Amino acid sequence: MIQWVELTVFTLLFGLVTVLGFVASRWQRGDTLDHLDEWGLGGRKFGSWITWFLVGGDLYTAYTFVAVPALLFSAGAMGFFALPYTVILYPLVFLPVLRLWSVSRVHGYVTPADFVRGRYGSSLLALLVAITGILATMPYIALQLVGLEAVLRTMGLNGTGFLGHLPLLVAFVVLAVYTYQSGLRAPALIAFVKDILIYVVILVAVVYLPAKLGGWEVIFGAAEQKMATTNPNTGQPTGSILLTANNQLQYITLALGSALALFLYPHCITGVLASRGRAVLKRNMIALPAYSLLLGLLALLGYVAIAAGVKPITNGATGRPDTNTIIPVLFDNEFGSIFAGVAFAAIGIGALVPAAIMSIAAANLWTRNIYKEYLHRDANPAQEAKQAKLASLVVKFGAVAFILFVDPQFSIDLQLIGGVVILQTLPAVAIALYTRWLHRWALVAGWVAGMGYGMYLLYQIPNVAAKKAHFGGSALTLDKLDLLGWQPFAGSTLQIYVGFVALAVNLLVAVLVTLVLRRTGTSAGADATSPQDYHADEGSSRVKPVTQSAAGH
Fold first, then answer.
1. What is the pTM of this model?
2. How many CA atoms lie less than 13 Å away from 429 in the CB half-sphere?
């Protein structure tokens, strides 16, 4: 049954951000939007406040609002991995992002693959980084759309077959059109509205709901009781509110692997490169952990939903219970229609902002590192911008295809599978910010080994809920680790994050091949950067003026 009041409030707020999305094309604009510096990086002049909302907007996504509480609701303590990973993240990336900003402003780099191209003089390595970024972004955009779909389903838009996805496609087309017109300025402006709504909803929820349900003791008691019940699909306990012997290693590797992966994502790097200077980034790295507090409070709503007796809505398109709907259903049951509508709008807009940034980042990669490098080397800035706009549409439709065909057990696995992919660029991007010791051909060999082994391991993981044999998640039991027929952990039930294993293989191969190539004297390629480039700040004579970045390629 359609919830008309909630749907009306949702539509009004959704309409507001749509208008803002179109107005954004005239906000702080330069001479033209027909340039990647302007369309894809917002003129590279965002200050502290805009950067804080923009980077927060693309890091704290439907993954935060829908997927993390859904994982706590379904599996218990394992879902809290998202908290330590956002705590260790900012100290870990504080210095590398400053170096990346500086070298990118000196040379006019728009993407991480641009940097790799300049650092190693290798168009092949840059191509691999670009393809990896685009592939990793697809499931992440898909996760945003899953979050939006969960909200629409809760409001009664839950048709069967293709109709089950129709409202999502409508919202998606709106997103595609204003992103096409306004570029990065659209999500930057909308992020203000999104974050204000989210903060209001979460603070009300974590104060009001526990008081209504009898306090946190009752909530944790209900969660513990549910986790002790047997999962009919596996014959094992549903989960645990404490980590178990089998999932502690997975928890550690997942937290560390996710922290290493996050700022390798093209959309995160786009937020960094759009900022005005190093001081802006320093302030943001200090202030962004405020979002981690929000994430912790939000995650606990997964347990609140258990205490409230929430039952996930059956997905009309697949016929299975959709755990992504538990937070929307919780709000629908416990709040009045108007406030529930506001909460749904917050989640929906919280999905659109990062989806827009992600599609722009992937479009920049396509344009600079595939189209301009291989298809149209003489493309002018206007042609680059047009190509990026078109690519941003294609990427979004790729994400919709991901939802329709992959269908993992937990929506969070969409992000974690993307993490396995993007981690394979760590040696070529993050390590290269400090040293060129790893040989460019060794980095290619490491990428092939890590990506191939990572995909092989992901293929081995079944999806118990959907009764599919492959690509069911990112947690691998150690007894499935197979090295050319040798199983070093045969019989072990411990689980580990696939991305961590694949990255270890990547680094090992890269180091060994580097040692061999250095012995044989194979050319390491020319480095277009100099040590001083990694410390330049706004106002420096080394910094290239905005809208001259096309010359840096």
1. 0.89
2. 32
